[in-house]
Specification:
Layout: E1 5-8, H1 12-24, E2 31-34, H2 37-45, E3 61-64, H3 73-82, E4 91-95, H4 100-108, E5 113-116, H5 121-138
Parallel strand pairs: 1-2, 1-3, 3-4, 4-5
Helix pairs in contact: 1-5, 2-3
Length: 145
């Protein structure tokens, strides 16, 4: 079974577009969605409502929005990179933010990539296609237990 993609996105339209784009581009990894930063961390570490789950597979890729409820994407990234279990998982920041500070903080904290979400649907499909091909097919990853 292919490792999942963790999509951390609070906008239902962007969530649907991302899932559709992966499907349309024949990227078959299961997509797990977290709708806020705390839920993302709970999923990753098996805490909160995800405590006690069995057979959890670490994501092959995390697509992380910056503007999130409860805990923003920058803080989520900080937690991911500080934890030995998750620090090597590729994290792509996908955001509408045009703030230079968000870009600098993301890379400073170890984001693997920073992508501004296109507004145009066709461009969005193409960006997701390229992200999927690169991070899930071409990029060599460290496999952690």
């Amino acid at each position: 079974m292919q490792s999942p993609i963790l999509l951390v996105e609070d906008n239902a339209d962007d969530e649907a577009l991302t899932i559709r784009a992966f499907s349309k581009n024949n990227i078959r990894n299961p997509i797990v969605v977290a709708r806020d930063g705390q839920e993302a961390l709970d999923q990753l570490y098996g805490t909160g409502s995800y405590a006690g789950r069995e057979n959890y597979q670490r994501p092959a890729l995390i697509l992380l929005d910056i503007k999130l409820p409860k805990l923003n994407g920058i803080e989520v990234l900080r937690h991911i990179r500080a934890n030995a279990q998750t620090k090597l998982i590729p994290v792509v920041m996908m955001t509408t933010s045009k703030e230079e500070d968000d870009l600098v903080k993301s890379y400073s904290l170890g984001a693997n990539s920073y992508i501004r979400k296109p507004v145009d649907f066709q461009q969005f499909l193409e960006v997701v296609r390229q992200v999927g091909i690169y991070w899930l097919m071409l990029n060599e990853q460290v496999h952690q237990p």
